[in-house]
Amino acid sequence: MQRRIALRRKLQILKNLTKSKSEKKSSIIKDTSIYIHKLQLRVEAITEECQHLINHIHEVKVESVGGGYLVVRVRCKKGEQMLASILEMFEELNVNVVEASITCKNLFGMEVIGT
């Protein structure tokens, strides 16, 4: 009896997660499989999109400074479009850049205060 209750609970969680309209177990499992496949495709697309940054980044540090503010420090190899690529990533992550300082000696460095 407990196994059935646990199974029903897990199926309900899957149904809610995948926004499945079906009540049948097989359909919920099929919808879950499709949902997982879409997530995998999304991860692959994001990885491809970010590969340029991934190959060039040396260090990323994120620190909460209170009041809902974050300090993000990024150090990476110099390269074309690095500033634009990093700012685009902040935008995609919904980080609102309040202040930024940039250095460009041996490595490209950027410190951002954002919310």
Briefly characterize the structure.
The protein has three helices and four strands, in the order ααββαββ. With 115 residues, the chain is of the alpha+beta class. Strands 1-2-4-3 form a four-stranded antiparallel sheet.
Structure in words:
There is one protein chain. With 115 residues, the chain is α+β, with helices and mostly antiparallel strands. The protein has 2 domains: 46 residues, no CATH class; 59 residues. The protein is 52% helix and 29% strand. The protein contains 3 helices and 4 strands. The chain has a 4-stranded antiparallel β-sheet with strand order 1-2-4-3. A hairpin with a 3-residue loop joins strand 3 and strand 4. It is found in: Nucleus. Its main location: nucleus. One of its GO terms (cellular component) is nucleus. Keywords: Nucleus. This is Plant bHLH transcription factor ACT-like domain-containing protein.
Write the layout of secondary structure elements.
Elements: H1 2-18, H2 25-56, E1 57-66, E2 69-76, H3 82-92, E3 97-104, E4 108-114
Antiparallel strand pairs: 1-2, 2-4, 3-4
Strand content: 25-35%
Report the major sheet: 4 strands, antiparallel
Rough shape?
A: elongated
Instruction: Report low-confidence residues grouped into runs of 5 or more.
Output: none
Number of folding domains?
2
End-to-end separation: 49 Å
DSSP summary: helix tally = 3
Q: Strand sequence of the main sheet, in spatial order? A: 1-2-4-3
Overall SS class: alpha+beta
Residue share in helix: 40-55%
Question: In angstroms, what is the radius of gyration?
Answer: 21 Å
Subcellular location: Nucleus
Keywords: Nucleus
Protein name: Plant bHLH transcription factor ACT-like domain-containing protein
InterPro entries: bHLH-TF_ACT-like_plant, TF_AMS/ICE1/BHLH6-like
